[in-house]
Write a structure and sequence with these properties.
27% strand, globular, Quinone Oxidoreductase, Chain A, domain 1, 2 domains, 7-stranded mixed beta sheet, 31% helix, 338 residues, Rossmann fold
């Protein structure tokens, strides 16, 4: 089978690999689509360190069971995965905080994932509920968004909201959040440097969109009488994004640094100024089993519009081109397929 292998920082290759062999309790997933995540791009750049190359990346997948050695899993079932394979017994796992488990293995991070024609889900993952079965009514083009939507639902639960929110970035995460914040009745403002992404945000209900110019800061602050109640940064949290977030939030407002940050990036705060500004600072990441279940139910109900998000598809054999396309932000979401 063909697979996209993360060999080391700045080195990705297309390889011919054996179809994974199964042992008792394992299942084999034939990949239909797998979305390229910003975390994979960051790992390739060397900005994040929670990957163990060489590894087949890919964790936002839609697939179908083609072989099963597990008594509870049937061939033909449509599936995706919870990519955090945790121990299932520690206090974090028992409280649906799997992402803090000390024995976690990530699909597409530590063990081979979905940028391949086939992927093995080990018995332990099935036994701990990390194989997510869905009805046939959820199409692969929607199913690959189940995990990103779960991350956004987690952020929505954790973030403090009042009346208005600014979302930095109109990539897949920013555009999912746009729909969720509008459904929550919030005035939603999108900040995005690329015009084609701002246009999609407008079609999905954003009240106003802005580029990242100083003039946009002035207009946004005027429009919101001094700043938005909440900022969610759904972009790379580098120095300029952090500064922009603080410029557009009102005193006492909430800032959620949702997006990844380059390794070594720091947030420096004058504590006296912070005290009197009254900002609420936080970071949301990943998902819970509960948020993935909620995500599944929203997909079943067709509660969100994913059609404008999946813009570019490449066969696995063109995986390097696919990564270049995603890194250049030419569309919205780039996915690979067999």
């Amino acid at each position: 089978m063909k697979a996209i292998v993360f060999e080391k920082i700045q080195q990705l290759s297309i390889q011919e690999k054996p179809i994974p062999e199964l042992t008792d309790g394992d299942v084999l997933i034939q990949t239909q689509l797998c979305g390229i995540c910003a975390s994979d791009l960051a790992a390739l750049r060397g900005d994040v360190s929670d990957y163990a190359p060489p590894v087949v990346m890919g964790h936002e997948l839609a697939g179908i069971i083609v072989d099963s050695r597990h008594p509870d899993v049937k061939i033909g079932e449509r599936v995706t995965v919870n990519p955090m394979l945790s121990c299932g017994v520690c206090s974090e796992c028992q409280n649906d905080l799997d992402k803090y488990c000390k024995n976690i293995e990530g699909i597409g991070h530590d063990i081979d994932g979905g940028y391949a024609e086939y992927m093995r889900m080990p018995k332990h993952g099935v036994d701990t509920g990390k194989l997510i079965r869905v009805p046939d009514s959820i199409h692969p083009e929607e199913l690959l968004f189940l995990e990103p939507l779960g991350c956004c639902l987690n952020a929505m639960r954790e973030t403090l909201f009042k009346d208005s929110v600014a979302i930095l970035g109109a990539g897949p995460i920013g555009l999912i959040l746009t729909q969720l914040t509008k459904q929550a009745g919030l005035a939603t403002y999108i900040v995005e440097p690329h015009a084609h992404r701002r246009a999609v945000a407008e079609t999905l209900g954003a009240d106003h969109t802005f580029d990242t110019s100083p003039e946009s800061v002035v207009r946004l602050r005027e429009l919101t009488n001094g700043g938005v109640d909440t900022v969610i940064s759904a972009t790379t949290n580098n120095t300029s994004a952090i500064a922009f977030a603080f410029e557009i939030v009102r005193r006492g407002g909430c800032l959620n640094f949702f997006g990844l940050a380059p390794e070594g990036e720091e947030l420096r705060i004058n504590l006296e100024e912070f005290h009197y500004a009254g900002h609420k600072l936080m970071a949301s990441w990943a998902f819970s089993r509960a948020s993935l279940e909620e995500s599944k139910q929203l997909l079943i109900k067709k509660a969100l519009n994913f059609e404008p998000l999946l813009t570019d598809r490449f066969p696995i054999a063109q995986g390097l081109t696919a990564f270049d396309n995603a890194a250049a932000q030419r569309g919205i979401k780039t996915a690979v397929h067999p």
